[in-house]
Structure formats: structure tokens, C-alpha cells
């Protein structure tokens, strides 16, 4: 590796995803107010939530087998936390704090941490029952996924609109969230958008927060006009893998039910409607060249790639697979930054949103060569971010939400009732 991760927080974030960390006995994570490790969401996060230098939030693997051999070790000295690599101190880090609302209960008596969890600084909610691919015999789940292992453990099974709303309210008050992300798996009858509808309406009407949804691609694409109308700001489609034979192998349920093309069609359609449309892939499950092709395809359509790093989670079909090598990942994330900037896609605009489970495209500037040539574009996005953040911080979330809508590059092409 050419770059020095002691000086480069982006490279350190990437390297920690790939290598994990060992936690020294001196550490008192929960006693010091750190966030407890939760097995939630669609199978890529299970680790320690921390904040690296330059404010980079991350979720570092600790429980998986590969992390036991990591060159990185977390130490506690005089109440502070430091990452070491082979006896050398790399940097001081901050533990992401455990929100007090995690231990509060909803009026129905459920622990709020089982309703939603903070991923970095946003609230993630998996509101409905387990993805149906996990219930088939034999299972048709994506082979890296742990959702069917998690629900009912750290995550409640079914969540009412009121339970979710009370949790969102508590997270807004204490953790100052600006964004709620709803995630569903596949359900027979393509019911996932209908299921999410009442949650979205309630949160948008009462709190005006930004809302994102991550579901399979509905066969009736006009449904996304309705989702836009009720206040969805971001849609995300996880096709995971661009190489079709590999997609078929890793994601049998998705292939049988939808096929890769339907994911791609949905991205193309929705990138012309929403403020943000994401195509999500998992780097490390196909060749780096194929991941880069996916990034180019997604950005050509005006959507923004979300690039996760494969993590062989315990209990999944791929638990014994090796994690990807950092050196193989660097060109992917370099391309992610350059492709977004070349196509003038608005990255880094979302207010007060730091994501721990993936490298955000704007964080990839730490890996990119010649990033200074985008100085003016970055300054423009920074200004937009500061303006929106100030509105949210002042409690003007409805105004901020309207401004996000006005900033939508697609606005002038939308039907009048959606502008
Ligand atoms: S679609 Fe795949 S990744 Fe998503 S919840 Fe179902 S099995 Fe997991």
C-alpha cells in the first residue's frame, strides 16, 4: 500500500473494514458509554461503532474470525481510546456513544433499541417481518446476509407505526437525527412499499425528517411517484453484484424473484424522480473490475453508488470466506469518488448524516488522486450541507425538508403535484 493510514483517515477506515480490530482487556467499552455491538440490519454490520480522526464514523469488525488476527489493537489509556498497529500508535479515536433512548421503552413496553438502531448518526428501522427468502425451504437468502439470524435477537419482529414513531421522536430529541432509513426484505405480493407507507406519512407529517427506503424493486415503477409524493427523499436498490452469473450464485432469491435487470431498471427510473437514488453493491464478492463497472453504470444513470465491503458474518453461508484485501478495494473507492465528481452528483450534501457501515463517496476523497481539482464543486456541496444542517439544528426540519425538495435536480421534470 502506498498511502500511510496513520495520516489518512479514509485509508484507515477502509483498512479496518478489511482487517477488523482486536480489543485489549484494558478497554471498558460499555462502562465508558460506548455503543454495544448489535447484530442488526441486512447483514453487513456487527462491529464496534467508533469515530475516527476527521469525524469519520465507522463500524469495525471485532467478533468475526478474521478480526482475531488483525494487526490493529484498541487500547484504553487514562480513559481515552487509541488504535495501535504492530506496537505503533496510529491515532486516538472516540467511542460512538450509547444513546440513552436505547434503554427507554415504547408505550407498548418494547425496548426502543429493538425498534431502531443508530448507524453512525442516522436511525435505521427494519419495521416488518423477516425477509421471505429466509423462510423458504431450502433458504433462498443472499449468502452474505444475516437478517434471518438477527430478527428477534437484537431486533423486534413486527413494529407498529406508533412504536416506530415514539422511537424516532426519542432519537430526534436526544441524538438529533435528521434522517430515518427504512429497510425491508422481500415479501410475497410485493407488499413492502405498502407496508412502509403509514410509517413514512406519520414521520414526515409530524417531524419533517428526511426519509429513505431500501426495498426490492417494485414491479410497478409508477408506485415510486407515490413514494415521492408522501415524502420519501431517497430510494436505494441493493443489487449487490454487477456480474450476473455471480449475482445468480450469491443472491438466489433476488435472482428468482426479480432478476438483476429489474434492479437496474428501477435505479434508472428512480434516479429521475428522487433527490437521491442509490444503487448498492458489496465490494469483495466479485472482481474489483466488475465493482468499478457497476460504479460507472450507476453514476451514468445519475444515481449514487453505495459500496459496502463484504464482511463474513458469523452464522452466514459465507462466514468462512476471507474478507477482501484492502489493496484490491482502494481502486474501487478511488473510482467511486471520481465518478461522482465527474458526473457532478451531489455527495456530502445530506445534513448531519455520518454513516458507519460504508465509505461515503465524499470520504473517498482521502483515497483519490488529484481531488483538489473538484475544489469548487466540493465547496458548493459543503455550503448546501451547512445550510441544511443549520435549519435542522434550529428545529426547522419541515423547512429543511422543503429545501431538499427544491434542490432536487429532477424537480423541473416531475409532474406538478410532485414538485
Ligand atoms: S434480500 Fe437478501 S440481503 Fe436483503 S434481507 Fe433478504 S436475504 Fe438479506
Offer a quick outline of the entry:
By secondary structure, this protein is an alpha/beta fold. It has helices at residues 9-19, 147-150, 161-175, 192-207, 223-229, 244-250, 252-257, 260-270, 288-300, 326-342, 375-393, 397-407; strands at residues 22-23, 48-52, 56-60, 72-77, 80-85, 88-95, 117-119, 122-125, 179-183, 210-214, 234-240, 276-283, 304-309.
| Number of separate structural domains | 2
Order of helices and strands: HEEEEEEEEHHEHEHEHHHEHEHHH
Radius of gyration: 20 Å
- The helix content, as a percent range, equals 25-40%
Assembly state here? Answer: single chain
Instruction: Flag low-confidence runs.
Output: none
Order of strands across the widest beta sheet?
7-8-9-10-11-12-13
Shape: globular
Describe it for me?
With 419 residues, the protein is α/β, with parallel strands linked by helices. It has 2 domains: 9-95, no CATH class; 100-402, TIM Barrel (Alpha-Beta Barrel). The protein is built from 12 helices and 13 strands. The strands form 2 sheets. A 7-stranded mixed sheet has the order 7-8-9-10-11-12-13. Helix 3 (161-175) packs across helix 4. It is globular and about 60 Å long. The model has no long low-confidence stretch (mean pLDDT 89). The site of iron/sulfur cluster (SF4) has 12 residues, from helix 7.
Give short descriptive properties of this protein.
419 residues, alpha/beta, seven-stranded mixed β-sheet, 13 strands, 17% strand, globular, binds iron/sulfur cluster
Please write out the topology:
Layout: H1 9-19, E1 22-23, E2 48-52, E3 56-60, E4 72-77, E5 80-85, E6 88-95, E7 117-119, E8 122-125, H2 147-150, H3 161-175, E9 179-183, H4 192-207, E10 210-214, H5 223-229, E11 234-240, H6 244-250, H7 252-257, H8 260-270, E12 276-283, H9 288-300, E13 304-309, H10 326-342, H11 375-393, H12 397-407
Parallel strand pairs: 1-4, 8-9, 9-10, 10-11, 11-12, 12-13
Antiparallel strand pairs: 2-3, 2-6, 4-5, 5-6, 7-8
The structure holds iron/sulfur cluster (SF4).
Domain Radical SAM core: 117-348
Organism: Candidatus Fischerbacteria bacterium RBG_13_37_8
Keywords: Iron, Iron-sulfur, Metal-binding, S-adenosyl-L-methionine
Amino acid at each position: 500500500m502506498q498511502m500511510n493510514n496513520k495520516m489518512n483517515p479514509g485509508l484507515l477506515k477502509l483498512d479496518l473494514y478489511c482487517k477488523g480490530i482486536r480489543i485489549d482487556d484494558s478497554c471498558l467499552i460499555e462502562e465508558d458509554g460506548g455503543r454495544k455491538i448489535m447484530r442488526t440490519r441486512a447483514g453487513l454490520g456487527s462491529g464496534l461503532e467508533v469515530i475516527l480522526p476527521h469525524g469519520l464514523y465507522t463500524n469495525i469488525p471485532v467478533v468475526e474470525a478474521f478480526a482475531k488476527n488483525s494487526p490493529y489493537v484498541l487500547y484504553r489509556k487514562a480513559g481515552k481510546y487509541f488504535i495501535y498497529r504492530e506496537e505503533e500508535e496510529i491515532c486516538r479515536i472516540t467511542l460512538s456513544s450509547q444513546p440513552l433512548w436505547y434503554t427507554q421503552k415504547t408505550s407498548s413496553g418494547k425496548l426502543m433499541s429493538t425498534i431502531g438502531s443508530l448507524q453512525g448518526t442516522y436511525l435505521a428501522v427494519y419495521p416488518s417481518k423477516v425477509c421471505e427468502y429466509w423462510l423458504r425451504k431450502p433458504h433462498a437468502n443472499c449468502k452474505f446476509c444475516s437478517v434471518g439470524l438477527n430478527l428477534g435477537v437484537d431486533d423486534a419482529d413486527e413494529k407498529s407505526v406508533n412504536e416506530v414513531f415514539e422511537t424516532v421522536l426519542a432519537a430526534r430529541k436526544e441524538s438529533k437525527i435528521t434522517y430515518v432509513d427504512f429497510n425491508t426484505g422481500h415479501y410475497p405480493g410485493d407488499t413492502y412499499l405498502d407496508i412502509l407507507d403509514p410509517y413514512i406519512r406519520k414521520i414526515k407529517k409530524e417531524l419533517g425528517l428526511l426519509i429513505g427506503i431500501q426495498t426490492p424493486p417494485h414491479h410497478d415503477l409508477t408506485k415510486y411517484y407515490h413514494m415521492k409524493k408522501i415524502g420519501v427523499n431517497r430510494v436505494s436498490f441493493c443489487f449487490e453484484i454487477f456480474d450476473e452469473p455471480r449475482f445468480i450464485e450469491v443472491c438466489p432469491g433476488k435472482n428468482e424473484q426479480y432478476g438483476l435487470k429489474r434492479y437496474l431498471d428501477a435505479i434508472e427510473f428512480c434516479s429521475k424522480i428522487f433527490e437521491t437514488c442509490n444503487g448498492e453493491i458489496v465490494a469483495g464478492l466479485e472482481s474489483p473490475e466488475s465493482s468499478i463497472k457497476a460504479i460507472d453504470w450507476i453514476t451514468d444513470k445519475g444515481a449514487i453508488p453505495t459500496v459496502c465491503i463484504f464482511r463474513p458474518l458469523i452464522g452466514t453461508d459465507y462466514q468462512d470466506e476471507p474478507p477482501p484485501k484492502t489493496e484490491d478495494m482502494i481502486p474501487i473507492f478511488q473510482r467511486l469518488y471520481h465518478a461522482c465528481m465527474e458526473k457532478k452528483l451531489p455527495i456530502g450534501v445530506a445534513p448531519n448524516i455520518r454513516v458507519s457501515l460504508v465509505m461515503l463517496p465524499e470520504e473517498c476523497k482521502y483515497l483519490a488522486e488529484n481531488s483538489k481539482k473538484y475544489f469548487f464543486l466540493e465547496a458548493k456541496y459543503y455550503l448546501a450541507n451547512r445550510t441544511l444542517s443549520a435549519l435542522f439544528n434550529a428545529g426547522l426540519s419541515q423547512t429543511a425538508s422543503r429545501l431538499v425538495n427544491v434542490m432536487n435536480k429532477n424537480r423541473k421534470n416531475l409532474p406538478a403535484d410532485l414538485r
